[in-house]
Specification:
Layout (H helix, E strand, L loop, with lengths): L3 E2 L10 E7 L6 E7 H7 L8 E5 L2 E5 L5 E7 L1 E2 L7 E5 L2 E5 L5 E7 L1 E2 L9 E4 L2 E5 L5 E7 L1 E2 L7 E5 L2 E5 L5 E7 L1 E6 L2 E6 L2 E5 L5 E7 L1 E2 L7 E6 L5 E6 L5 E7 L1 E4 L4 E6 L2 E6 L4 E5 L13 E4 L16 E3 L1
Antiparallel strand pairs: 1-31, 2-3, 4-5, 5-6, 7-8, 8-9, 9-10, 11-12, 12-13, 13-14, 15-16, 16-17, 17-18, 19-20, 20-21, 21-22, 23-24, 24-25, 25-26, 27-28, 28-29, 29-30, 31-32
């Protein structure tokens, strides 16, 4: 998928970041990839929290006093969320509780985490489905792809097309799109025949599929891209009615604050407030390198530590 310019200061829903800490000088180090939301909640564990603990190349859990609570036998672990931790053993994923009991035995090829009453997405034999906290497959592993639930719906792929299901597995939006993202602020990005737009939860296309790329809404605005006549990329921001609050004409668009947006046009930098009022783009030494404030991102790749965060159920990487 082609590049999409991301706007600063927002949140990536599933983007993994590096989370590291040293428990002892030599062997007891935990170094673990966690979803950003989990790292935020767990980066300062309390005295009763269990902490990933490594012995050799195996992982278990200790308490804050470095007392081993769950034997180090797993190839990979994540922090506890909603009372369960995802573990990996012999190439398969499952979940344990704080006593170390394998509530959901490691049998899945991949699995997301339990978080805020969402159903985790699991992969088995190349197909995706969703499980509950008891390990029951509430939604069978029959889909070719799946995006985590957001706002009560999940985008799933079947027979080459994406649609949306609810948490009971009922199809609520028909399978007709070539790609789809999770809902954010009541709207979801969808793609059909290489054009992007936005639908609501009834499936109505509230913003026409006319863009060459788009990202989810945050704070009432969404980033969009159009290819110009010479195939140059032009970026801007639209509101939920599809109005171009920041016209789709800029080489770069980057979030500087809650109210200000950085833009670059014809090689010059300037500012816009989010109502579109402009400080005309002009040369500025401190903003001469747009990479300092505007990052070009590529879909479906992991984010490195310290990058801006979006409310998207997608993964990114700096180009």
């Amino acid at each position: 998928m082609k590049q999409m310019l991301a706007i600063f200061g927002l949140m990536v829903g599933m983007a993994p970041i590096s989370y590291r800490s040293v428990l002892t000088e030599k062997t007891t180090i935990y170094s673990i990839l966690n979803p950003a939301a989990i790292a935020q909640e767990s980066s300062n564990p309390g005295p009763s929290e269990l902490i990933p603990y490594r012995m050799g190349d195996k992982w278990g859990f200790s308490d804050a006093n470095k007392k081993l609570i769950i034997q180090a036998r797993y190839d990979e672990v994540l922090l506890f969320t909603d009372g369960l931790a995802r573990v990996k053993l012999n190439g398969k994923y499952g979940f344990i509780d704080k006593s170390g009991t394998e509530v959901i035995p490691p049998k899945y090829d991949n699995a997301s985490i339990f978080f805020h009453d969402e159903l985790p997405r699991v992969k088995l034999n190349g197909k995706y489905g969703f499980i509950d906290m008891n390990g029951a497959e509430v939604i069978p592993c029959k889909y070719d792809d799946a995006v985590r639930f957001s706002e009560g719906l999940a985008a799933v792929k079947l027979n080459g097309k994406y649609g949306f299901i609810d948490m009971s597995g009922k199809e609520v939006i028909a399978f007709k799109y070539d790609n789809a993202m999770g809902f954010s602020e009541g709207l979801a990005v969808v793609r059909l025949k290489d054009k992007y737009g936005f639908i609501d939860k009834s499936g109505k296309e509230v913003i026409p599929l006319k863009f060459d790329d788009a990202v989810s809404f945050y704070g009432g605005l969404a980033g969009v891209r159009l290819n110009g006549k010479g195939q140059e990329e032009q970026f801007g921001l639209v509101d939920k009615s599809g109005n171009e609050v920041i016209p789709v004409k800029y080489e770069h668009v980057g979030n500087l604050s809650e109210s200000l947006v950085y833009v670059k046009l014809n090689g010059k930098c300037g500012y816009l407030d989010k109502s579109g009022s402009a400080d005309p783009p002009k040369a500025h030494k401190q903003l001469s390198r747009p990479a300092e404030v505007c990052l070009q991102l590529r879909w479906n790749r992991p984010v490195n530590q310290g990058l801006p965060r979006w409310p998207l159920r997608r993964l990114f990487q700096i180009d």
